């Protein structure tokens, strides 16, 4: 089974992906995490992509497509989080999976209104080590500044600044929203309300993929 988590920045894709991983045992592939690791490691790909990410715009399709398709190699089932984000990426993915007689089985579209996204992203803190997200208002860590899961240091992402947050949402609306229709037309889309208790959203997500919560 291959799943895609689709939704605006701050909709909780990463959080839900973690829960899904535990329940259904698929590999979690987060394009943003892969890109941030490349930046942190100072690879050539990282140097090429850093400025795009800082501005809150999309990294060029060919770069991200290459990165994700490489990460897909040898995996039999994945949860894609943050990819695809453009029609071109969706088509490249479909083609690559098709070559191994696989497909995207279900797309979970996590919907959240714009005002709520801005609120969430501006109070988001992320673990430097494992990328787990926290929210100082809704979901604070047990110990200030430290990751519950791995003890890593929490920081505010460079692109979680008000100006960049607005840019990312605008980019989402113009470049990624067309994917909702793309997957709906092939009957693979399930919309999940992304506002409410995390556990309740997880139940809705699991139900959509046919797994008992
Ligand atoms: P969020 O979903 O909160 O915006 P991500 O970690 O998924 O955070 O993405 C952070 C940044 O990484 C994006 O703003 C973009 O610059 C880059 N990025 C991630 N995934 C993609 C993608 N599929 N295509 C192009 N750029 C991407
Ligand atoms: Zn951590």
Keywords:
binds adenosine-5'-diphosphate, Rossmann fold, 8 strands, 5-stranded parallel β-sheet, alpha/beta, binds zinc ion, globular
Description:
The protein has 213 residues and is an alpha/beta fold. It has a domain of 144 residues: 3-Layer(aba) Sandwich (Rossmann fold). The chain has nine helices and eight strands. The strands form two sheets. A five-stranded parallel beta sheet has the order 2-3-1-4-8, sandwiched between helices. A three-stranded antiparallel beta sheet has the order 6-5-7. The chain is globular, with a radius of gyration of 16 Å. The two termini are 17 Å apart. The mean pLDDT is 94. The protein binds adenosine-5'-diphosphate (ADP) and zinc ion. Zinc ion binds next to loops.
Helix and strand arrangement:
Layout: E1 3-6, H1 13-24, E2 27-30, H2 31-41, H3 44-55, H4 61-72, E3 78-81, H5 87-98, E4 106-111, H6 114-122, E5 124-127, E6 133-135, E7 154-155, H7 162-176, H8 178-185, E8 189-193, H9 198-208
Parallel strand pairs: 1-3, 1-4, 2-3, 4-8
Antiparallel strand pairs: 5-6, 5-7
The structure holds adenosine-5'-diphosphate and zinc ion.
């Amino acid at each position: 089974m291959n799943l895609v988590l689709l939704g605006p920045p701050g909709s909780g894709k990463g959080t839900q992906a973690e829960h899904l991983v535990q329940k259904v045992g698929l590999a979690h592939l987060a394009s943003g995490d892969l890109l941030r690791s490349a930046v942190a490691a100072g690879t050539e790909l990282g140097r090429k992509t850093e400025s795009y990410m800082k501005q809150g715009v999309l990294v060029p399709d060919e770069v991200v497509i290459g990165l994700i398709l490489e990460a897909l190699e040898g995996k039999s089932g994945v949860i894609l989080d943050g990819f695809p984000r453009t029609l071109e990426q969706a088509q490249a993915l479909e083609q690559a999976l098709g070559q191994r007689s696989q497909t995207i089985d279900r797309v979970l579209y996590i919907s959240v209104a714009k005002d709520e996204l801005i609120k969430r992203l501006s109070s988001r803190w992320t673990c430097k080590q494992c990328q787990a997200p926290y929210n100082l208002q809704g979901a604070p860590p047990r110990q200030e500044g430290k990751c519950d899961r791995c003890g890593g240091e929490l920081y505010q992402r460079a692109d979680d600044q008000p100006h960049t947050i607005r840019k990312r949402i605008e980019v989402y609306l113009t470049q990624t929203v067309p994917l909702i229709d793309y997957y709906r037309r092939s009957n693979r889309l399930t919309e999940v309300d992304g506002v409410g208790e995390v556990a309740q959203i997880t139940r809705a997500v699991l139900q959509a993929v046919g797994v008992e919560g």
